[in-house]
Amino acid sequence: MKHILILGAGRSAAALIHFLSQQDVQVQIVDVDQQIIKRYESRYENVTATSLDIFDDSARINLISSADLVISMLPARFHIHVARTCVEVGKNLLTASYVDKEVEKLKDQIEEKGLLFLYECGLDPGIDHMSAMRIIDDVKERGGTVTSFISNTGGLMAPGSDDNPWRYKITWNPRNVVLAGKGGAAIYMLHGIYKHIPHHQLFKRLSEIEIPGFGKFESYPNRDSLKYINLYKLKNVETVLRGTLRRPGFCSAWNAFVQLGMTDDSYKVYQVKEMTYNDFTRTYLPYSKLDPKINFANYLHLSPDSSEMEKIEWLGILKHELIGLEEATPAQVMQKLLEEKWKAQPDDEDLIVMQHKLEYEMDGEKHKVISSMAHTGSFETLTGMAQCVGYPLGIAAMGILNGEIEMKGLHIPVEKQIYEPVLEKLKSLGIDFIEEDEVIPVVDE
After folding, report:
1. Considering just the CA atoms, what is the radius of gyration of the chain in Å?
2. Cα 123–125–131 angle (5° rounding)?
3. Three-class SS state of 77
4. 26, 32, 56, 225: which has the highest count of C-beta atoms within 10 A?
5. Selection from 128, 189, 211, 175 nearest residue 412 by Cα
6. Where are the strands (E) in 158-202, listed by range?
7. Cis link prior to 125 (omega < 30° from 0)?
8. What does DSSP assign to residue 76?
9. pLDDT tens digits for 232-270?
């Protein structure tokens, strides 16, 4: 029986472990958190759990050496320690995280040893790559040329569980939610023109999309879209844009905190230990004897009765309640508040939505493809987020062990040998896309 080692067993690993527990493999889970270890110790017959400090070189080498395949679900900054050990002892490695500069330095060694390091094999990145490349490759195989590629993904709450004014709760890393868009200007191309959107403008540059059966969403630009021109081999593309989805109205309210500087993570708040949330908010507003809500609204040119102010006030950012942190950056203060207010309940369901819009030319005609996916999960069992991150990894792992995926080197799942079997299995697990392909009518000028 093959032995799969999973390093890190947080929330996103739950569906991966569940999937592999149903396969003919032996699974070993390793995590530093004793509570997580106890949770899995006796749940599945073919799953064992143990504790490990990832920086214990000897223990890490011994564990990885005994495995047939390694899956890292650790925080991204720890992957490189696992990657170097996998190269050293000759083991294949899978992860949902982005390829970074450190692992790229290992590329030659990975190939020389005949190993497969498959990165970006989760949801986003992961399912986004695979579902997009299936359409792009199909268009090319039929003789078409892709001219426009727009892709959007969001992790939100399912209808009925989106029961607060923001229609949002935290389903993944809360720090990333607060710092969304802080990694530099969003870069994309629109009708052949390059666009650079800095963080303070990001939540103003929105577009609207609709997902069948789930209604309307708003999208803000996400990071560097231009790199997908090469990743997806879109040589003749005139538009390439990737975005993050939220429910309508979310971005304009969140933008208030961005404009005030309350999502900054570069400095500590002075005397935060003694502050209430009201005190904290007032440090970012002009001095005024007006009610803080009125002062807040006036400074940001909002109506006190606006939907934006309803959301902001609901968060409790204006309340005389102690923050309760010894020290913190503004972003950490916001994170603590959001973790309390945007906390999902056990009976809640989350919602993963993804949509690709492509335009292509073929045989003198212009076509448009819209490919949409919506998948729900439960916080009581397996969240949609955990399923969409974990299932692709589990399916790919079994494909490698069974010889269905035989590639070597450092890869992401943009090759047909990877994405075809993974997407087919995901379909059987309820994660599927609805696609529409139509001819764009010619408009006489």
Report:
1. 23
2. 70
3. helix
4. 225
5. 128
6. 186-190, 193-197
7. yes
8. G
9. 999 889 999 999 999 999 999 999 999 999 999 999 999
Chain segment 139-150, per-residue pLDDT in tens: 999 999 999 999
The mean per-residue pLDDT over the stretch 308-315 comes to 97
Helix (H) or strand (E) holding 362: strand 349-362
CA 53 – CA 55 distance, rounded (Å): 5
Q: What is the DSSP letter of 304?
A: T
Q: Specify the DSSP class assigned to residue 64.
A: H
Indicate the burial class of 137 (C-beta count within 10 angstroms; 0-12, 13-18, 19 or more).
Answer: middle
CA atoms of 56 and 322, how far apart (whole Å): 39
Percentage of the chain beyond pLDDT 70 is 99
pLDDT at residue 424, as a whole number: 97
Q: Which one of 3.40.50.2000, 3.30.479.30, 3.30.200.20, 3.40.50.720 gives the CATH number of domain 2-125+385-428?
A: 3.40.50.720
Domain locations along the chain: 2-125+385-428
Residues pairing with 242 in the sheet: 151
Of 271, 288, 287, the residue nearest 325 (C-alpha): 271
Q: What is the mean pLDDT of the chain?
A: 94
In this structure, the strands spanning 434-439 and 145-157 are unpaired
CA nearest neighbour of 76 among 128, 19, 30, 8:
8
What's the token pair of residue 101?
């500069």
Partners of 126 in the beta sheet?
A: 122, 123
pLDDT higher than threshold 60 for residue 445: no
How many residues belong to the chain? 445
From residue 374, how far is each of 11, 159, 218 by CA, in Å? 20, 12, 15
Residue 273 in tokens: 């230990």
Enter the tokens of residue 78: 């720890």
Residue with tokens 């190269």: 87
Helix axes 14-21, 384-401, angle to 10 degrees: 40
Asked whether 385 and 350 are in contact (CB, 8 A), the reply is yes
